[in-house]
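Hi F.,

I've been meaning to write this up properly since the lab meeting, where we talked about keeping a consistent format for the predictions we share between groups. The idea is simple: the sequence comes first, exactly as it goes in, then the structure tokens exactly as they come out, then a line or two of notes. No screenshots and no reformatting. I'm using this chain as the first example so we have something concrete to point to.
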Amino acid sequence: MKVAVAGAGNVGTAIARDLSAAGHTVLLIEKNPELAARLRERLAGVHVVAADACEVSSLVEAGMADVDVTVAATGDDEDNLVVSLLSKQEFAVPRVIARVNNPGNQWLFNESWGVDIPVSTPRLITAIVEEAVSVGSLVRLFQLGGGAANLVEVTLAAGSPANGSELATLDLPRDATIVALIRNDRVVVPRGDTVLAEGDEVLVLVLGAAEGEVRRRLVGS
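Output, unedited:
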């Protein structure tokens, strides 16, 4: 897989290094030519280009034509939005992931700007904290499709109406799918005859309109 990372700050450099170590072809785009030159010496296996990722001509020269994933990882939200839009509209990149620096700008990072997955560090930390301490409540872990769908987690409490039920009998809405269970620190692949129990961590992919019904089935009223 070829991944383009825009922005060679601490975040972008770390992403590029990790992806390269995982065997992916990585294109790191940095506007500052001096920083780009230093990183060429430090990042073996990463193709570092000194270019402005907000300009189409620069992206063409950098080799964006065959990129599978773009990561807009600069420290500026406006730049990340422009990079995302150009990646999607000019180069038809299948998957665009954008860093949200200011949580107040989260609402802008959607499909209209070419963003498939926005990543906000404060939101992620909040979700992790909630997931760690919340039993018997529905916690949103991740947003997909510009907010059209969410990956949510429910740790079943003692009073959950789902306890003792087979997945096939839960009668979840069509717009919700249980994708995994975590039981005793082990991942369980859900099947129709899997019986839910108190303490199970249930991961559900759900469209927004169906979230209320999922909460009712797994948490209760």
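Notes:
Helices lie at 10-21, 33-42, 56-62, 77-89, 121-133, 211-218.
The CA atoms of residues 54 and 176 lie 37 Å apart.

If this format works for you, I'll send the rest the same way.

G.
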